[in-house]
Amino acid sequence: MRRMNDSDIVITPEDRPGAPRPAPRSAPEARRRRPPPRLPLTPVQKGAGIALAAVVVVGLLAATWTNRLPHRLAQGVVDGVFALTAVAGFRIEDIAVTGRSRTPVEQVVAALGVHHGDPIFGLDIALAKQRLEAIPSVRAAAVERRLPTAIHIVLAERQPVALWQSQGRFVLVDKEGRQIPGAVDGYEALPLVVGEGAPGAAAGLRALLAGEPELEARVKAAIRVGDRRWDIRLDHPESGTTIKLPEDDAASAWHRFAELERRHQLTAKNPAAIDLRQPDRLWLQAGRAPAAAERRGD
Fold first, then answer.
1. Are 145 and 185 part of one and the same domain?
2. Does residue 220 lie in a domain region?
3. Which residue of 5, 35, 52, 106 is surrounded by the most CB atoms within 10 Å?
4. 249 is in which domain, residue-wise?
5. Domain containing 82 — which CATH number?
6. Residue 201 to residues 6, 206, 253, Cα–Cα distance (Å)
7. What DSSP character marks residue 119?
8. Residue 190: predicted pLDDT
9. pLDDT (tens digit, 9 = 90+) per residue, 260-292?
10. What is the DSSP letter of 93?
């Protein structure tokens, strides 16, 4: 038996880049129950089905018997039963994957750990699911057999919510703060976050910024300070105005700044920083913050 490779993986049409998505069904049509699919079985396949039923019965008897056998011998009996099902036509010939965008095909094949022609009943569904969900870009996975010869996989990949800059490189992160490997091309519009603890707080940051859409469109970077609060950089990731938000109730401070900006255009004179950490006052810093202040992490 040969190892499964990329050519054995079938990517369903809806997962191909640029492919049109099927139109949603109307409510009556969605509620209408479809008849169960029927396989046009040949006499040989029907005979194989009968043989399979016999094999299953033998397998159940063997399972009962193997409880009294050493593990290695018991495993040999089980493997023999699976081999008989493969002879009856129930073997792996095709794998279909739905929901794959960023996950490399070779990682899917490696996670399954099967060979072309292996008994389809020999695939450990729970273990395959566990291995697929261990792939960094996969959040959840479902695996099912489609008899007699196909395995169908549905992947739910992690969705990036921010770009994290760390040690001179950029990494996509999801709402749980998990890193998503791969290229960042096409995600440049995501918020750029920097600092210790930034990935884990990125989802909350996006929700905070979304409360003021006009300001959100001007955000170029967000710096996590001491893993407890945010400095928001507007208009330019390096020379733009820094909005210093408080550790507690940052959303109220963000709304307060938005209202002041609409009324007084605080950033029109390009101040280096606007400090909102005190709820009853506001500080404007005219020049660039000295390097010593930034090292203090205030």
1. no
2. yes
3. 52
4. 160-296
5. 3.10.20.310
6. 37, 9, 17
7. B
8. 87
9. 999 999 998 889 999 999 998 999 998 654 443
10. -
Q: What mean pLDDT is reported for the chain? A: 80
Q: Is residue 165 part of a domain?
A: yes
**Boundary residue ending a domain (157, 191, 213):** 157
- Same domain (yes/no): 108, 240: no
DSSP state letters, 43-66: HHHHHHHHHHHHHHHHHHHHHHHH
Beta-strand pair 160-166/192-194: parallel
pTM of the prediction?
Answer: 0.64
The DSSP 8-state label assigned to residue 135 in this structure reads S
Residues 68 and 149 in one domain: yes
Rounded CA-CA distance 47/52 in Å is 9
- DSSP-based three-state secondary structure for 222: strand
Domains contained in the chain, number? 2
Does one domain contain both 153 and 170?
no
Report the candidate in 107, 94, 103, 98 with the shortest Cα–Cα distance to residue 16: 98
Q: Is the residue at 21 inside a domain? A: no
Residue 85 in any domain: the answer is yes
Q: What is the pLDDT of residues 221-245, one digit of tens each?
A: 999 999 999 999 998 888 899 999 9
